[in-house]
Amino acid sequence: MLKLSEIFCSIQGESTYSGFPCIFIRLAGCNLRCSYCDTKYAYTPARKMSELDILAEIRQFEPLKLVEITGGEPLLQDKVYSLLVKLHEQKYKILLETNGSLDLAEVPEYVTKIVDIKCPGSGHSDSFLIGNLKYLNKSGDEIKFVLTDKIDYEWAKVRIAEYALTGYKIIFSPAFSILEADELASWILQDKLKIRMQLQLHKYIWDPAKRGV
Ligand code: SF4
Question: 22, 50, 133, 148 - which has most CB atoms within 10 Å?
Fold first, then answer.
């Protein structure tokens, strides 16, 4: 059985898939406690479900075939791997959002990984497993930095150089209501950074505190 927080359908808002209707499977539990975490309710499970129950529940959203496994931190639960296999067998396009602190070795290649590198403002800037880079595909997977201030921004630039991340899909996202989007935009333009800036789209469509969107 998997421990879940919620299952819902919404507009994808935090990757290069932003804007697409997407099914979300939010698994419960997280090994980090980021300062800006907006899904604290996912630290504890709301329900337990088998992989087959999950597949049955998301069938209500057909014909959508884009699904994101998120959390919390989804890789904390071993059973997530059999869920990935079953979703793949059912022809779902799978996105996996993970905080970067857990080993990606067992995540199948057909899964698009959206991996955080946590900045100092999160309180977990030592959490990224550098060995995970070898499991990331430059053409498909994505690396995300959530930024709270100029210190985070400069830190992220140093990590891009240090980890030789040029060529990967890199996203800079301002922590909602902490760093102003226009401020981040001005830094990126000033430095002519070859990264993608992104806002959490769902927080502009709906009330930012609303769950299940
Ligand atoms: S990794 Fe994600 S879910 Fe976990 S504390 Fe940080 S923001 Fe929240």
Answer: 22
State the Cα–Cα distance between residues 124 and 73, nearest whole angstrom.
14
Cα distance between residue 107 and residue 169, in whole Å: 18
Read off the CATH number of the domain in which 88 is found. 3.20.20.70
Compute the half-sphere exposure of residue 154: CA atoms within 13 Å on the CB side of its CA. 3
CB 73 within 8 A of CB 32: yes
Is residue 33 within 6 Å of ligand 1 at its C-beta?
Answer: yes
Ligand 1 site, residue 127, Cβ cutoff 6 A: no
Residue 213 lies in a domain: no
What atom in ligand 1 is closest to the CA of residue 36?
7
Whole-prediction pTM value? 0.95
